[in-house]
């Protein structure tokens, strides 16, 4: 089976009815970019920049970040590299000095922290715009709940670009700006975002956590962490439908994308871009090449109408077995 998977690296992720599914890599550290490319990733769907902060008490400098982002972009000449701005707080690496919170998952984290600390945020935005000169870099904002956050971030991006311009530093100011859809608020009101963003990426790890009110890191709750819950499927379906109708690309970069049954559900819901850990790309490709989007869509429609996650899973499993 390992050999079979290895043989898929150079092959296209094409469904049995001829639909290309774009498979990108999730990257935590710049050093992983080369391996992601050699696993056949068509770019990076999510780089989690908070890993640049691991084990440190201060944020990395602009030059340090620039070098890190440039390294990833250069590993993927001409293919998109989506870099997410800092998602610190919650379960994510509270950086030295950030306040302890009683309820960090609902707390001062991710885009909230960045908008409240514009000087810190602008250092990252400048590094990103400088690295964007070297390839197809795109910026993604985590944990948004309102388009106001996008507008504030864009304002800071313009401000940061003006500072680079004034200093004569080479950069690209018109970097595509997209958002993670990983809160129920963003999914339900996704129509209010589409005019202000260049792309959407569904983060199912947090979307499941916040929709079902189930802590993603709590071992006592693993059986209740059910991405196939019809509530979650309906939020994904809505995001895909509204995003595509607005002409935006809609990808999924949560863990859900890397599991066969769930990847099948996502394809059935109309998702055409998945981003997974580099080592998981061939396994997802194997599923893609064995299924038809038409049958997946029929199964997904039935799963959307299910009453429970278990029922949805049974429907999808039955359909997937018939295909493979
Ligand atoms: C997600 O929430 O699904 C996601 C991809 O981001 P993270 O796992 O880093 O929160
Ligand atoms: Mg997330």
Which descriptors apply to this entry?
324 residues; 13 helices; 8 strands; 44% helix; binds phosphoenolpyruvate
Q: What topology does this entry show?
A:
Blueprint: H1 2-6, E1 22-27, H2 33-38, E2 44-48, H3 62-75, E3 81-84, H4 110-116, H5 118-131, E4 137-141, H6 147-167, E5 177-181, H7 184-188, E6 199-202, H8 204-212, H9 230-245, E7 249-252, H10 260-268, E8 273-277, H11 281-290, H12 293-304, H13 309-323
EC number: 2.7.3.9
Keywords: Cytoplasm, Kinase, Magnesium, Metal-binding, Phosphotransferase system, Sugar transport, Transferase, Transport
Family: Belongs to the PEP-utilizing enzyme family.
Question: What this model shows, in words?
Answer:
The chain is built from 13 helices and eight strands. The two termini are 15 Å apart. The longest helix has 21 residues, at 147-167. It is an alpha/beta fold and 324 residues long. Strands 1-2-3-4-5-6-7-8 form an eight-stranded parallel beta barrel, surrounded by five helices. The protein has helices spanning 2-6, 33-38, 62-75, 110-116, 118-131, 147-167, 184-188, 204-212, 230-245, 260-268, 281-290, 293-304, 309-323, and strands at 22-27, 44-48, 81-84, 137-141, 177-181, 199-202, 249-252, 273-277. 44% of the residues lie in helices and 12% in strands. Phosphoenolpyruvate (PEP) is lined by residues 46, 48, 87, 182, 203-206, 253-254. GO terms for molecular function: kinase activity; metal ion binding; phosphoenolpyruvate-protein phosphotransferase activity. Its cofactor is Mg(2+). This is Phosphoenolpyruvate-protein phosphotransferase.
